[in-house]
Structure formats: structure tokens, C-alpha cells
Amino acid sequence: MDDLGELLLWLLGIVVLAILVVALMWGCPRYNVWQQGLAGEAALRRAEWDRQTSVEGNESYLRYLWIDHLDKVTGQIVYVPTEAGLPILEAGRGVKHGE
Fold first, then answer.
1. Of 80, 98, 5, 99, whose CA–CA distance to 90 is shortest?
2. Average model confidence (pLDDT) across the chain
3. Under a CB-based contact definition with an 8 Å cutoff, are residues 70 and 76 in contact?
4. Residues 6 or more apart in contact with residue 62 via CB below 8 angstroms
5. Is the pLDDT of residue 78 over 80?
6. Residues 25, 28, 29, 30: is their CA dihedral positive or negative?
7. How far apart are CA 20 and CA 26, in angstroms?
8. What's the rounded Cα separation, in Å, for the pair 20 and 96?
9. Domain limits of the chain?
10. CA–CA gap between residue 50 and residue 43 (Å, rounded)
11. By the 8 A CB rule, do 17 and 23 touch?
12. Alpha carbons 71 and 77: distance in angstroms, whole number
């Protein structure tokens, strides 16, 4: 009876070990994909945050975006400020010179 019990114990150990190996072979790739997905989401959120902070604190970049957008807009009057920071409000528009 001792030989049969020892054999069953060995078989039980081998079955448990086989189940553990199969579970690890199935679970590890899924865990790696899940972990990489979380790392990707974290990198995306970090990039969005960096872009927000760089745009908010960079006046010249916002001015560049505004000027770049002017090419797409037609029929709009743009007032350019002078040295004093005040725009020239259509000075001379419609004035006939030489009359």
C-alpha cells in the first residue's frame, strides 16, 4: 500500500506541476500584453500633458499657430499693432490721395 500511495503522490505532483506550467504558458503572454497596454496609455497621457503645458506656457508657439491658421481663413481683416501696442484702425482706408 505504501508503494501505491507514493505513486499516487508522485502522479499528483506531476499533474499539479503540468497544470502550473500550462497556466503560466497561457497567462504570461496575456499579462505582458496587458502591461504593455498600460505602459502605452501612461506614455500617451504623459505626452498629452507635456503638450498642454508646452502650449500653455509658450506665447510664441500660439502666435505661430494663429498666423499659420490665417492662410485658411478668407475675407478677414487683421489689425497689426504698432510699437505702442495699439492697432492702426484702417488709417488711410478709403482716403483718396492726390485730390
1. 80
2. 81
3. yes
4. 55
5. no
6. positive
7. 10
8. 93
9. 2-70
10. 10
11. no
12. 12
DSSP assignment of the chain, as one string? -HHHHHHHHHHHHHHHHHHHHHHHHHHHHHHHHHHHHHHHHHHHHHHHHHHHHHHHT-HHHHHHHHHHHHTT--S---PPB-TTS-B--STTTTPPTT-
Give the cell for residue 24.
Answer: 503560466
pTM reported for the whole predicted model: 0.41
Tell me if 89 sits within 8 A of 80, measured CB to CB: no
What backbone phi and psi angles, to 5 degrees, belong to 91?
Answer: -65, 125
Question: Residue type at 37?
Answer: G
Distance, first Cα to last Cα, the chain: 128
Query: Is pLDDT at 94 greater than 60 in this prediction?
Result: no
Distance (Å, whole) CA 87 – CA 80: 5
Set of cell numbers at residue 13: 505532483
